[in-house]
TrEMBL record:
Residues 51-271, 390-641 form the Ion transport domain. It is found in: Membrane. GO terms for molecular function: monoatomic ion channel activity. It comes from Ficedula albicollis (Collared flycatcher). The lineage of its organism: Eukaryota, Metazoa, Chordata, Craniata, Vertebrata. It is a multi-pass membrane protein. Pfam families: Ion_trans. The chain crosses the membrane at residues 46-65, 71-91, 112-131, 173-192, 212-229, 241-269, 391-409, 415-437, 449-469, 510-535, 611-637. Keywords: Membrane, Transmembrane, Transmembrane helix. This is Ion transport domain-containing protein. One of its GO terms (cellular component) is membrane.
Amino acid sequence: IPEINTQEHHAMTFATAFVSDAQYNRNIPFKTSPEAVRLYRLYNHWMMRTATYFFIFLNLSLALFEEPAVYPLPFLATSVLEVLCLLVFLGRLTHFAKVTLHNVFWKDTKNICIMVAILLSLTDLAVYGVLRLYGVGSIRWSRIVRPVFLINFAESRQIRRAFRSIRNTLPEITYVFLLFTFSLLMFSLMALKLFGERNLQTAEGLPYFRNYLEIVFDLYVLVTTANSPDVMMPAFDFSSWYALFFIAFVIINTYIFMSLFLAVVYNNYKKHLKNEIRKLAYMKRRKMVEAFNLLKEEEGEQFVVREARWKQLVKLVAPDTSSSHRELLLRISDDEQKGFVDKKSFVQLADLLNIQVVTLRIRRHPLARWAPALYGSTPSRLLRRAVRHRAFVWTYDAIILINAIFIALDEESPYISYAEWVFLALYIIEILLKVYTYEPREFFGKTQFWNWFDTLIIIAALTATILNATLKSTMKYNSQQILDIVFILRVLRLIRIVDSIQRFQVIMNTLINIVPTMLTFGGLTLVVYCVFAIIGMELFHGKIQYFPANSNVPHALECGNPALKDSLFARGRYCKNNFNDFASSFIVLMELTVVNQWHDILGMWIQPAKLYFIAFHIVMVIIIVNIFVSFILEAFFVEYSLEKSEVETAIEQKIQELGMGVQEDELQQEQLLDNMESAEHELEGDGGTKPQSKGLVFKIASKRYRTVDALLQRMFEAEIPLEDEGPSFEEILNLSPSSAVPRSLSSESAA
């Protein structure tokens, strides 16, 4: 019997790991020994992941404190911190090696990259330290590999997916880029022949279009429209017909080729994104099947998972889930209450756990207990009904708009001052009416951001108004600036008006849904910026210096570089746009990403150096920004077209069947309490009656908190039959874009 219990415990541990991986879309092949599974669960603990990210960003931020430094620290201090980070990375990698299969670990390119990066960093640090002791200057070339840690640890699978999208898109982009380059070179040659022999000059008195490489660069800048119409004016002044040349160039290269870049990037991004999502969907299905096989028992002619084991599994996978929530999920999985869950229902468990179900509880208002006759009277019920009505919200939205207009008016007018007192009184009445209508503990619940925001703003406005009036009457001192800040914060409530308009909700939902992926593209941008910033510091450090406007230092007006005399760069006072430290390099790269006036920033560099900036423009603006735009397009398409999933529908149907459901408009948002244990509490209304005999009500949480990746994955999962177990783990990892289609769809196509 002890041996059987041990086997059951091990099976439950493995199944928990499989279901947890399916829930969070992890595809790490781990060892099946009990010790390895425990280490694997520890590896995926949120504290371990948070610590890893902390040391990754600490390692990246060391560039702020190393020479050339924004805030210089001794070399010993930065060296100790870097060694500490590398030891943490080595420990994390060792931990990963303990839980994964030996052959899988050594075949995984990202593990090799991490080990090579650690070795290179330690070697470079030791060599740099020794040379420093002997007073020999050298370059910290290994700093360029620091972003490798951000990309290649298992926690950064979203960033790796983005890089894979870029890698897979490059072949198609290359063909378009070659055509674009050919067009640019042809137009440059035509410009040289048209304008080179006419002795034209720019507005600065420089030769116009006489050097072929300069023409190529100027026309490349024209593609970004940064130097338009300046680059055209000398030719246009000579003859109006020459404007046709530049118009043709802009139409072909700016509008057609740049649109082609976006089209190619979007098409390939969409194709490879769907391939990634298909792999995730198949991997999740396979892991759920493996978990079922570990826990299954024979029941008649089928295999099932008993109710007790199912409950134990759910409690281990989602320990924070309330007992009432678990019972609801069981009633959905075991619809006929047979005491077991079949395979078809079991494989949906990860989806059930990923759908946020909100537990609602209506507390009895304190006034209903202290003064039931008054609180339950007809005038009181009418007042509370009016506060709950949508017209009450619309009325205060209109008041906020009117208040915003008054804030913009002349603050010296006494009528404006009196009006602010009126608005303040109206806001105080609003809060008092809501607290009277809704139970106070629910109204100020931990999830009720807007209630807290409104109340704190009103209290701050009341305090500041009284303080300002007191100071003005006693000390003749008017602190209107304090009130201005408070009233501006009041205007921020306009966001609620936007959110309340139905037509805007799709846009708001999409903006909220893309926030997690924006962090992914933020990480992608950070990697590119770090690499180019470090290269830029090594290439251009000290070439430009910044001096205050009243400085008497020689060549201060030329940014410390005589070669910049009378240049647009010096005349524009761009001296702070330099690569003298890590922060300044980031700012310059941000300006280059925007591309406005970027040719002025580049104007000081010789031709070979310009290749650095053009390379950054191609990587960042043409490729990464277009991929981000592609993601936004896909996000909006999904948001507009996607309906509720079958799993969500099943949950809602079961909630209504059990008599424990609530419609969207039956309860105000102020009455929602997330993840609340309500089993011991009765659900009471205003007058102490029990509106639900079960003592609980549930509803599906708002869909605005789902990520776009999850929505896309759900679209593909809908195409996979529930009885389809999917390919094996090895087959899933080797799926190609053309082969990653559901079996049922493939068979239908063949038929």
